[in-house]
Every structure is written in C-alpha cells, then in structure tokens.
Amino acid sequence: MKAVLASLPRGKTLPTPVWARRHRTLVWLVWAHAVALPLFGLTRGYGLDHVLIDGLPIAFFAGLAALPVGSKRFRASAVSMGLLTSSAILVHLWGGQIEAHFHFFVMVTILATYEEWLPYLIAVSYVVVHHGSVGVLESHSAYSHQAAYDNPWKWAAIHGAFIVALCIANVVGWRMNEDLRDDLRVNEERFRSAFEDAPIGMAIVDSAGSFARVNRSFSATTGYPMEALLGMKMVELVPQDAREEYRQTWSEKDRGELERRFVRADGSMGWGLWQRTTASDGQFLLQCLDISERKHAEQQLELAARADALTGIPNRTRFVELLHETIAIWAPLDRQVAVLFLDLDDFKVINDSLGHGAGDRLLAETARRLERVLRPGDSLARFGGDEFTICLGDIGDADHALRITERLLGVLRPPFVLDGERRYLTASVGLTLTGCPDADPEELLRDADAAMYRAKELGKARCEVFDESMRQRAVERLELETSLRGALEREELRLVYQPKVQLNGERIVGVEALLRWDHPVHGTIPPMKFIPLAEQSGLIVPIGAWVVEEACRTAARWQREFERDDLIIAVNLSPRQLGSTELVDTVRNAIHDNGLAPSTLCLEVTESALMADIAAARETLHALKELGVMLAVDDFGVGHASLKQLKQLLPVDILKIDKSFVDGLTTDIEDRAIIEAVIILAGSLGLDTVAEGVEDAGQADALRDLHCRLAQGYHFSRPVTPDAISALLDAELTPGPGSIDAARVDGDVTL
To answer: What CATH number is given for 198-240+252-296 in this structure?
Structure first.
C-alpha cells in the first residue's frame, strides 16, 4: 500500500506562475461555456428563460473562480464545478446523446492540468454522482438508450469506469510531470549553485545585450554591485576605444575564449578571459576569468625585456627599435642620425674599491644626468655594464653631433657623491653618423663601438668620430683575437729572455721572460698588439699559465746545466691573472713540477695593476709570498703609489724604475733626481732596484754612480732566444771578458 501511495502524484507542485497562468485560461474557459451553452440551448429549441437558468450556475462558478481572494484550492475547485456543470448542461441540452458525454472526459482531462487532488477528485465524483442521480430522476437528460433508462446506476458505473481509466492515464502523466519538474528543479539548483558559487565571473545576457543575471564573482571582478549590474548593457563595461572591436567580436556567435579589456566601476582597467555560450532562446551565458594580474605580470616582463632593470632606461633591444624609428623619421628629410657609444673610464676601480652597490648607484645617477640634457626625441639606453648608447636625430653634420656630445660629457664632470666621498668620472665616446634610410642599426652600433675603443686607445675622456680605418682595425683585432684562441695549441707562442745584469761587473743575475707570437700570416706580432687582446678576452689566464710553466722549466734547466742556483727567472703577471683564483695553484705547480727553488722565481706586476684594487692585490700577493717567490713592482713611478704604501700594504722585494725616467737620466736633472730618490728610499726600506731600458754606456755609468745595483736594456742585450741565453751563461764560465761584453762584441745574442 505504501508503495502504491508513494507512486501517486503529490499534488500542489506546480510553480505559482505556471498555476496562475493555467488558472486564468481555465476561468476563461468556464466563462466561455456560460455564454456558449445558452446559445446552444436556443438552437435546440429551449426557451430563453430555460437556457438562462442553465447558464446561471456556470457563471456563478466562473465568478467564484475569478475572485482574487481565496486559496488556490478553492478557486481550482470552483473551476472544476463550473466545467463539470457545463458538461452536465450540455448532456441535458443535447438530450443525453452519447457524444455529449465525451465533454465530461475532456473536462476531466483539462482539470488534470491543475495537478492537484481536490479539484480532480471533485470532477471524478461529479461524473459518477451526476450519471447516477440524474439517470434515476430524469433518465432522458442523462442517457439516450433504454438500457440506461432501466438501470441508470449501472451505466453510471460504466461511465465511471471509463473515467477511472482516463484518470489513471491522467495521473500517470501528472506523476511524470512532477518527476520531470523534480529533475528540472534539481538541475536548476545545481546550476544555481554552480552559477552563484563559481570562482569565475558568470552572467546571463539577454538578446538585447543586458545582464539578466550575474553571480558574486562577476560582481567582484567588475566592482559593480549585483543590483547595479542587472539591466546594465554589456557594452558599458567595454572601453570607449574598443567598442567597435567589441561589436565585431560579438557579432559572431561563440567564438571561443577571447582576451579583452573591461572597465571596472571605479574607472580602472582590467583584463578578462571571456567566453560566450549562446542558448536557444537568444540569451547567452557569459563567463569572465579575471586575468588582470597575469596581464600585469606579462607587461612587467615585457618592460623588463625592453628596459634596463637598474636604471629604468631602454636596454639594447629597445634601443635598436628606437634607432630604427629615428632613422625612418629623419633620413627621408635629408637629416642625419648620430649614434654615440659611451663607456665610463676605469669604472672597475669604483666597483672594486667601493663595491658593486656603489657602482650601481653611480650607473643610475649617470643615466639620470644624461637624460636631463637629452633633446626631445633623442634616446638613451644602457647597453650593458658601464656602457651607454645614445641616438640623436635631426643632426646636420659631425660638428653638430660633437657639440651635443660635449654637452653630454659635460654633465659627467661634476663630482658624484658616493658614500659621503666625492668621485670624479670621465667617459670615452665613439660617434658615427648616417643619413641612409636603409642603415643597419647593428652596424651603426658596431662602428660607434669601434670609435669608442679608438678613444680609449688615445687616452680616454674624449670622443672619436668613426672612419673606415677604425673598422679595419676592428676587423683586424677580431681576426687576431680569433687566431689567438688557438695559438697555444698550434705552438705559435714562444718565450724570449732579456738578461738582468749586476752593474758592477755586468754579471748576469737573472733573466726576464717575454712573450712573442709568431703568426703564420702576419709574422711576429708585437706584444703591445696582442697582449691587450688576450687581457680583454680572458685568454691571458691560460696563456699566462703556460708562460709560468715554460719559464720555470727553462730556468730549472739553466740552473742545472750551468750550476747557477742563484739565477733568477722573472715572469710578468697581467691584472687579469692577478685576479684569477687559479694563479697561486699555477705558480705552485710550476715550481714543484720543475724542481725550481721558489726564491729564484720573481713575479712582476705593474704599479697600476696593484693600485687598481689594492686589497685584492694584497691578498693574492701574500698567498704567493707564502710560496717563497720574489715579487717585483714593474714600471714604478708612472702610477700614483708611494714607496711607503707599497712597503706597508704589499709584500714586494724589488722596484723596477720605469724606462721613461732612465731615458732622461743623463740629460734631465729632474729625472736623475727622481731616480736617485727612488734608489735611496728603496734601499732604506730594504727593497732592491732594477733600472729598465738602459740603452747606452752613459746611462749605465750614471746608474753605477747612483748606486743602482741591477739593470737591463738593449745596452746589455736585447730579448734573445733560450739558446742565446745559454751561450751567455756559458761565456761567464770562461775566463776573460764578461759574458755580456763578449756577446756585445760578437753580436750573436740579438734577435
């Protein structure tokens, strides 16, 4: 029984708007019967008073059903009574014809649309009671055949059975409708929950483009309250400059995901990933994923890709684009475009002495100063490190560009204050010009870079204008650097040696190893031409390691062969080597592997290299000194160091007096005084001195008079091969004139 009851419809499940709509229709149907049946009765020959009385109860029930008061069940029951009464009147007016009874079936079916038990049961009961009672009291008003006249209740039951069968069909349909609505309600709840609680913005837009429904996420994304969004046109969220694109975009249905801007309630701009799904009723579901943060991150990345992070000015990539644009503007107008390549002089000293933080602040301030004097339309970029590039448009000639360049360099002359100290800065600038619309920015940068290197070579703190000779030098330099990379493997590098002599007796006490490069095409390349290349490219580190190893090996052979355990071999170290973490291990291995006494190896470092980063130099030189080697300061006197600084801060043993002072020894009183002072001060500090570049006997005699102990130069010997040094050392073993004197007479030791 419970199962049967559970299978029956529950009733009263119609949504109120649907019930009201059906009720209005059925009320009009009752009124229609109240009018139509009296008219039908007149056609059947009944009198006016008769048909009016027949229509009166129908109108009464129609009036009750139309009342705005009363429950839905009461009004539905009034409709049920009105329609069933209409069926009874029709059967009566038609004389009980069997066809008239079909009206009962139709009305019962119509009343099932209420999907409510009370009006429906009233209808079924009405049919049975009517057929039975009227069949007894007035058979001709209910039936049209004799069998029904004789047994009206039997035929009432028969008609009732048909009604029951009809009811079963109606109830099944009714229950199916309820189940369908239940499913729809569940789906609606699911949709509502998914819609309302969705993490992305969702809105239903009607065919007119207005928001019919929105969720909380959509409200939060746009910044508008949900109430304000309802009824708002979707186009109101579109920026003014994008509305035409909006119309084109949404003119086609369901174009997939689109990234579009939108205007928030506060006027700010956001980015959304929009997707539209069109429904059959012309409305569409709009989904919006807020991608503003992602877009902002993309913009920041794009900015970072086109701007320098430290200074905020354009980087190389953006500068090339700006240069393209500037050429396109001015070249067609017969005006030139100038490209400046600016490199800060000795910037490494700032980084090494004050730290990279101070160096970064200096670069940022340099960019700000340069920006302040740029003309409108000119461009500044940081090319990398301490290099800046500048693009100047609307240039008449080279003099015009040079005047602007001078103004730019002028803003760098005032001191920079770093960590409370005043620092002065200069820059070397390369300049190139073009008036060709098809000029290649990369080639212009290359030419300006070549001119900048020329400015460095000519003494720094100046500007050089590019010419073809610079390009040729740059090409040669590149070719040399490329060849130098394989010179060690091809055994093109060799060492020559220049003796160091004791001025009293001119006995050889040591030799200095000097590097030479025998190029297969260009012949012997001077050290001043390839050593700077090796230094800049970093090749000096492996080449320098080879020099130390080869010099130690050769010196050890001489010491054994000529029993000269006191023979000192001197090797020059470059600034790049001095900063290498491998230097100490390289020297240690060379000494150990060749069996050379550490005290017979002298490592020479220029004064400028030492003073560039005195703290780092001190650390490296102390580590070398712990190995037992000797240390010498080369080219002393051309830098800014004092003897006291060198002695207190650095563990040096020897000072080498620069050739520039020795050249004026016999002709310039000041040079002689400087050399004398250096020798006296060095002696008082326990340092030995070596005079470089001695070229004649007068200079040698003058040095003896000043009590300089050691010297080297062409007067004694040019740099010579290892075999020539062997000959000199062998000559010292033979009684007679000193080896240097003998070699000078024979002339067999020069290159």
So the answer is: 3.30.450.20
